[in-house]
Amino acid sequence: MTDALARIHAAFADAGVTGRLHAVDIDSGAQLDAGADQPVCTASVHKLCLLVSLHEQAAAGILDLTEQVESPPEGRTTGPTGLAAMLDGARLSLRDLAYLMMSVSDNAAADLLLARVGLEAVNRTTARLGLTRTYAVHTFGELLATIKEDAGPGGARSLADPHVVARLRALDPARTNHSTPRDMTRLLAAVWRDEACTPEHGAAIRRVLGLQVWPHRLASGFPFDDVHVAGKTGSLPTVRNEVGVVEYPDGGRYAVAVFTRTARTSALQPAADAVIGTAARLAVDALRAPQAGPRGAEPGR
């Protein structure tokens, strides 16, 4: 484990990021900790907490996942994907909004779900599951509004200025939606063990996490046809995150949370994206290495 930690820290340094990581074998409890209890800005990773709360309410009969919701174009939360980028009105079920929220990180879909579920209900869900360092401060629209306000009159162009980025409330865990890597792997493990919701709803959560379209972060570390990666990304200026579960054909399953921050303010951060997969692979390989037999074998062989 010591060698793996050294290699993970070296990978973060080579990518020019400050990285925090926690990885755990969901079944044995073996774990690897690289700053796992440091507070981090969750960004869109917090949509996972909302998804679990949505299914908790559905299991309790508080809402019906097939309930239809109107999404007029006026007043939608902004974003580059899903409803947030569409021009016309739409009508979708709660479960299809959840699909858009998780697969393409649709901010508008997420805030429509938050309007139905409630921000405090999300916090009650995370508290019930023992995620003592996880808290939702605001909706995704409100988060984006703080960035716009803090950026000042220069607007989006000013986010290239490190001095402007340094004052963003959205990047301060004390003032925005936050968690720790350990809390996030605890949540993922609870979902995979059907402890977060009933088995029916746990399966639905796992399904939608497996439909995420982005292959350039966590999944990039596991380029094998027989290894399944399900996860949720999160991005803000200088921040690139992903949490997820890696499942091997021998039954091994590993929850991994990687949160990174870089001093670079460019919108594209390929090195920060790629190191999430690199660090996750190093962590999972370390968790698998002590195990004898086929479970330690290279996937795809």
Automatic annotation (TrEMBL):
SUPFAM superfamilies: beta-lactamase/transpeptidase-like. One of its GO terms (molecular function) is beta-lactamase activity. It comes from the Bacteria. Residues 21-260 form the Beta-lactamase class A catalytic domain. GO terms for biological process: beta-lactam antibiotic catabolic process; response to antibiotic. This is Beta-lactamase. It comes from Streptomyces azureus.
